[in-house]
Design a protein that fits this description.
heterotrimer, A mainly alpha, B mainly alpha, C alpha/beta, A: mainly alpha, MetI-like fold, 16 helices, B: 14 helices, Carbohydrate ABC transporter permease (chain B), BP-dep_ABC_trans_perm (chain B), cell membrane (chain B), transmembrane (chain B), transmembrane helix (chain B)
Chain lengths: 327, 273, 417
């Protein structure tokens, strides 16, 4: 039936069959070309809703944010419009601000410490739960609970636990004879406290993805390895970890992208304080735009754009590494 | 014999690890039962010695509509995310559209935009299209959190579907859409459950979009309902924590039921590649 | 193989349909902009920062009644006070500002700067009976932009039991030296000294001002010796263990919760805690915050203002004005300020309040002596000073910087605006 249709088509368009010689070869390459175009259109049809969606809901906010950062907006011009174009002034203001250095530094520490520990803990737990003991499934599901709590609740709970006077963590330290730590009040500990809370919140995500990645490693490989006398650690190093690499890569990348954006947690626990001891680019961006009585939308948006740029750099790096691996 | 005690050891360790991980959740429960005057007691009570149920009473009186709305928004977000992400994932995995690589990058970039930037951008759009202060508008907004990730999951999973399955369907004369619906989707059940889980949880705990875009609506989610207890000069922490406890229960139930599907082969394609 | 063009069309149609359904579904009155003409029967939007009062509360019912008395339906939205200002700006940008809005008084100057509030004189609202210093927080460039719903301020609550046990006579706390001495006595008697809020938000600045002003400090010169003296006082208390380290995280509510445990002798807190004080379970008293060298320290005014944002359709102002007048008439002020435990803005209602509740008398006096934060010509300069100020307090109390260095940095930042 397909062939019949093709023949009819090639009869209808004799002009095409001219250049390439015999009629039979022409209809074959014609068929391929048409099939390719058909499949390309189909593919386009499948992703068209997504493209429209992306353009409408992501391009526009990005554009607005860019606009906010490239113009000199006062509260009046924010409401009424007509803000003058100011080029890179907002970016320059941000870079000159004394908070920029600390915010940048804290962002780096916060992000990398969080990801490292979340990943390590998630991996260890995934491997552990992979052993299929009783209650493994239920316990693994319970591990996801931190994730479904509203962030204001988790962050507030951690604030309470870290409270220097009435917090349970200092109480526990007191019971083992360690003097109380000013978790949220001291510039030395504030960042550590928010990192700890962030790790706790991020473990479920890593656990879920890494665990499902583990499911794809065939059990036969482990059986063969233990027959050869490999211990648990060796099995992990030689089988699990290498085979998990693509999944690990995407988990780490997404972890990075999501952690860079984290702001609620820090804002609720310390608001970037004391002073700017736990300020990151994300909290600083919010503070400039919404955390004062007189918002500075331009610099706030500029910091936001810097954040997106940093994430973009890592995204491109990931893609390059991935492409090199595939090649 | 040895393996049984060995396995039991794992269960014990597992329970201990879970207990440590869930300690803050226990603490939340503890605070929800603490009366106002003991809130800042030092040292704190490890067990709620003078429990008060006023927090829970407040929750049951006030919060049930908010919980219902959260459930509605969560399920709606799941539906919208699946409808948008599954076909796109299939296309990127199997159909090789032009610009597939750029689309992949776009999906990554989409996830890099801070929530408040998105919310501010949406405000104008939503106002113009009448989506502001509505639960269906919030579904659209919450889906933007989940869709890019959903597409990535579907792409990864569907690339692992053997090509023979799809060619077999084609040979039988099925079109691409038929193939997608009748062959690919049933096989992708695990990916569907995973994406549903993620989108539900993200929608359930979203605050930024709810606050900016549904602050004045008649139906508001639980993340805003909690703010009822955060007045300008007064915060009722036992009620806030009680709300959190009650809000966690339906989500926890869904989690336990769904985790079986999330387990197997979500990222099947990644290893094969 | 189906026609791919048809598939493409189907896909675009689906995408289009989804958007259309969403838009059509929103066609009913779900957008926040008010509907109806300025005459009877429309919906008016009302925002306030009291999410703890729902529709069935006295305040909620009052708002509704003022609306129906004016012939319209009022749609009330309450939100967190820090959010309110930002949301107002965002809404105004899209032409979606509410008709009547209650805002915390230091926000008024920002909203006026953005040009979104109407002058009370333009609306024909009568503010003559309102105490000048209370009205002052909403006065910018000699024009008033809102009507205060009530005022509150700060004082020192004390725990009578602890002070008696430590042999401290509250009447002896007259200046900073005597206060610190009292704290020392309380600490050696085994109890805790004082709690307040030094959080990095406007609340922190609010709590710091009585001490800053009590030393004679001037907000345009944060790093003067007087400012440093005030900050050093707080630092001395925290370092000496008279105040807990977590003052840096305390809101005024959590600071009160610490006081309510019965372990603290003093708490710097506001009028609105009076209701909670009665429930505290121990006998308490109130003294005014002492100045550095005696007398009462000047304290800042708190409290919300009823404002009328600018609308495209100026015929709506008639009804908005009626709603505002209704909310701020004497009878309603008495009810509202009793519920909120604020001091009423007019002398007449204040007298009624004191007659009903004599405990309010010292507070009425305190409010009479209080200063607006945005007064003295500061206006929108105040937010640019307040934020560096609370940052300096955080830096000094956490040990990150010395009080002088912290305030120097703050003055530089405030200078940059």
């Amino acid at each position: 039936m397909t062939i019949a249709r093709v023949d009819r088509r090639s009869q209808r368009s004799p002009a095409r069959s001219g250049a390439t010689g015999t009629g039979h070869r022409t209809s074959a390459s014609d068929l391929r070309r048409r099939q390719r175009r058909r499949s390309r259109l189909t593919a386009l049809a499948f992703i068209a809703p997504l493209i429209v969606y992306l353009a409408a809901f992501y391009l526009y906010p990005l554009y607005r944010n860019l606009d906010l950062s490239l113009r000199d907006y006062t509260v009046r011009s924010f409401v009424q419009g007509n803000a003058p174009f100011s080029g890179l002034d907002n970016f320059r203001t941000v870079l000159d601000d004394p908070t920029f250095g600390p915010a940048m530094r804290h962002t780096v520490i916060f992000t990398f410490a969080s990801i490292a520990f979340q990943y390590a803990a998630g991996l260890a737990l995934a491997v552990f739960f992979n052993r299929r003991f009783r209650l493994a499934g239920t316990l693994r599901a319970l591990f996801l609970i931190p994730w479904l709590l509203p962030l204001i609740v988790s962050a507030s709970t951690w604030s309470w636990m870290f409270n220097s006077e009435s917090g349970v963590i200092n109480y526990a330290l007191h019971l083992v004879g360690v003097s109380p730590v000013d978790w949220l009040n001291s510039p030395d500990w504030a960042l550590t406290s928010v990192v700890i809370a962030n790790i706790w919140i991020g473990i479920p995500f890593n656990l879920v993805i890494l665990y499902s990645g583990l499911q794809n490693i065939p059990a036969e490989l482990y059986e063969a390895a233990s027959l050869d006398g490999a211990g648990a650690w060796q099995q992990f190093r030689r089988i699990t970890f290498p085979l998990l690499r693509p999944v690990s890569a995407i988990t780490l990348l997404l972890g990075l992208v999501y952690t860079l954006k984290v702001f609620d947690l820090i804002w609720i626990m310390t608001k970037g304080g004391p002073g700017d001891a736990s300020s990151t680019l994300a909290t600083w961006s919010y503070q400039l735009g919404f955390g004062t009585l007189l918002p500075k939308f331009g610099p706030g948006a500029a910091v936001g754009n810097i954040l997106i740029l940093i994430a973009l750099v890592f995204g491109l790096l990931y893609i390059r590494v991935q492409r090199r691996q595939e090649a | 014999m040895k393996s049984r005690t060995g396995k039991r050891r794992y269960t014990v360790i597992g329970v201990l690890l879970t207990a440590v991980m869930l300690f803050p959740v226990y603490w939340m429960l503890n605070v929800s039962l603490t009366p106002q005057q003991d809130m800042r007691k030092s040292p704190p009570d490890l067990l709620p010695l003078h429990p008060t149920f006023e927090g829970y009473r407040a929750v049951l009186n006030d919060q049930l509509p908010y919980l219902g709305t959260s459930l509605l928004i969560g399920l709606g977000t799941v539906a919208l995310t699946l409808v948008l992400a599954a076909p796109a994932g299939f296309a990127l995995a199997k159909l090789r559209p032009l610009g597939g690589g750029t689309l992949g990058l776009a999906l990554l970039v989409a996830q890099m935009i801070p929530g408040i930037v998105m919310a501010m951008g949406f405000y104008g759009i939503f106002l113009d299209y009448g989506l502001l202060n509505s639960w269906w508008g919030l579904i659209v907004a919450d889906s933007t959190i989940a869709v890019p990730f959903g597409v990535m999951i579907f792409t990864a999973f569907m690339s692992g579907i053997p090509g023979e399955l799809i060619s077999a369907a084609r040979i039988d004369g099925a079109g691409t859409w038929r193939t997608f619906v009748s062959v690919v989707l049933p096989v992708s059940r695990n990916a569907i459950v995973t994406v549903s889980l993620f989108s539900f949880l993200w929608a359930w705990s979203d605050f930024v979009f709810a606050n900016t875009l549904d602050g004045g609506g008649d139906l508001r989610p639980i993340t805003l309902g909690i703010y009822k207890y955060i007045g300008n000069n007064n915060q009722e922490w036992n009620a806030i924590m009680a709300t959190a406890v009650v809000a966690s229960i339906p989500a926890a139930v869904l989690l336990v039921l769904a985790q079986r599907y999330v387990a197997a082969g979500v990222t099947a394609g990644a290893v094969k590649d | 193989m189906r026609n791919p063009r048809r598939t493409l069309l189907a896909a675009m149609a689906t995408a289009g349909a989804l958007t259309a359904v969403a838009a059509c579904g929103g066609g009913s009155d779900s957008s926040a902009s008010g509907s109806g003409s300025g005459k009877s029967g429309g919906t008016y939007n009302f925002w306030d920062p009291y999410p703890q009062f729902d529709a069935s509360s006295a305040w909620g019912k009052l708002v509704g009644k003022c609306g129906t008395d004016a012939g319209v339906k009022v749609k009330r939205t309450s939100m967190d006070t820090t959010d309110l200002g930002n949301k107002a700006l965002l809404a105004a940008q899209q032409g979606n500002a509410p008709d009547v809005m209650l805002v915390d008084n230091p926000v008024v100057s920002t909203l006026v700067e953005a040009g979104i509030l109407n002058k009370t004189s333009d609306l024909g609202l009568d503010t003559s009976s309102i105490q000048k210093n209370i009205l002052g927080a909403g006065v910018i460039d000699n024009a008033s932009y809102g009507v205060p719903i009530g005022a509150n301020t700060l004082a020192l609550y004390y725990n009578k039991k602890i002070l008696t046990a430590a042999h401290v006579d509250p009447a002896s706390v007259k200046d900073w030296a005597s206060l610190t001495a009292a704290l020392k006595k309380v600490k050696s008697a085994g109890k805790k000294g004082i709690t307040f809020s030094a959080i990095n938000t406007e609340e922190g600045s609010f709590q710091f001002l009585p001490w800053f002003w009590g030393a004679g400090g001037d907000l345009t010169k944060l790093n003067s010796a007087k400012g440093v003296a005030a900050l050093s006082l707080w630092k001395q208390w925290v370092d000496g263990g008279y105040a807990p380290k977590d003052v840096l995280q305390n809101t005024q509510t959590t600071s009160w919760q610490e006081f309510a445990t019965g372990e603290y002798a003093f708490s710097e807190n506001g009028t609105w805690q009076l209701g909670n004080a009665d429930k505290a379970g121990f006998p308490y008293g109130v003294i005014s915050i002492p100045g550095q060298n005696g007398g009462s320290a000047p304290v800042p005014t708190g409290g919300e203002f009823v404002t009328v944002p600018v609308q495209k359709d100026s015929s709506r102002y008639d009804v908005s004005k009626k709603i505002v007048t209704c909310l701020t008439n004497s009878a309603n002020l008495l009810t509202t300020d009793t519920t909120l435990t604020y001091v009423a803005p007019t002398a007449a209602v204040q007298a009624q309040q004191v007659a009903k509740n004599p405990e309010l008398k010292p507070w009425v006096g305190a409010v009479a002596a209080a200063r607006g934060r945005t007064s003295d010509g500061l206006g929108t300069k105040y937010p640019t000073i307040s934020q560096p100020m609370w940052t300096a307090v955080q830096n000094a109390l956490s040990g990150g910087k010395s009080p002088q260095a912290a305030l120097d940095a703050a003055q530089t930042a405030a200078g940059k605006g």
